[in-house]
């Protein structure tokens, strides 16, 4: 499963530690972010996680060469209102892998919405209540950041 815009890569690292075959990706124009992905793997003793440059909205050889996928992960990739680039990459991967799902967490910022774009790209999504996996608390894993933000999750 790939994680898009992985940065520090927590979801992908966790998935890999749980036994998934994971590909971490970040912006092809931001080698330092890809390096962060690699360092997160090293710090967590993961040696079989691939790191692939993928820029949202771009059809690159790296995107075309991804193996069959079951799950696409992303966290905090809808943080500036250029949402369509992310969705173009997600739509490309979901059309190529029709049984795959896109799981994404996002922080509510301003009053931006991706609803119209989901309609335009004919994507159906469900909201996931954080309470279903005990993540609706103001503190998680020793961090009080969750209490300072409004975090949501959806599956496309
Ligand atoms: C707000 S950070 C979130 C990082 C990480 N997923 C997390 O939750 O901590 C956004 C990430 O998206 C990546 N990103 C930004 N623009 C991108 C683009 N056009 N294509 C691919 N990745 C991009 C950034 O490099 C960064 O790692």
From TrEMBL:
PANTHER family, per the entry: HEPATOCELLULAR CARCINOMA-ASSOCIATED ANTIGEN, HISTONE-ARGININE METHYLTRANSFERASE METTL23
Entry's family note: Belongs to the methyltransferase superfamily. METTL23 family.
Key words, A-Z: Methyltransferase, S-adenosyl-L-methionine, Transferase
Name of the protein described by the UniProt record: Methyltransferase 23, arginine
UniProt key word Methyltransferase: yes
GO molecular function, one term: methyltransferase activity
Gene3D superfamilies: Vaccinia Virus protein VP39
Domain of life according to the entry: Eukaryota
Recorded coiled-coil stretches: none
Alphabetical GO biological process terms: methylation
GO CC entries: cytoplasm; nucleus
Methyltransferase found in the keyword field: yes
């Amino acid at each position: 499963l790939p994680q898009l815009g992985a940065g520090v890569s927590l979801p992908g690292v966790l998935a890999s530690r749980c036994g998934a075959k994971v590909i971490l990706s970040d912006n092809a124009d931001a080698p330092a972010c890809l390096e962060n992905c690699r360092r997160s793997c090293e710090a967590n003793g993961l040696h079989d996680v691939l790191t692939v440059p993928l820029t949202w909205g771009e059809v690159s050889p790296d995107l075309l060469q991804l193996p069959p996928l079951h799950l696409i992960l992303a966290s905090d990739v809808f943080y500036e209102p250029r949402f369509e680039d992310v969705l173009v990459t997600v739509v490309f991967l979901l059309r190529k892998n029709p049984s795959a799902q896109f799981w994404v967490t996002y922080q509510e910022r301003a009053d931006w919405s991706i609803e119209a774009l989901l309609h335009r790209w004919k994507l159906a999504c469900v909201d996931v209540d954080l309470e279903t996996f005990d993540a609706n608390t103001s503190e998680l894993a020793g961090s009080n950041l969750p209490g300072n933000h409004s975090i949501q999750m959806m599956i496309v």
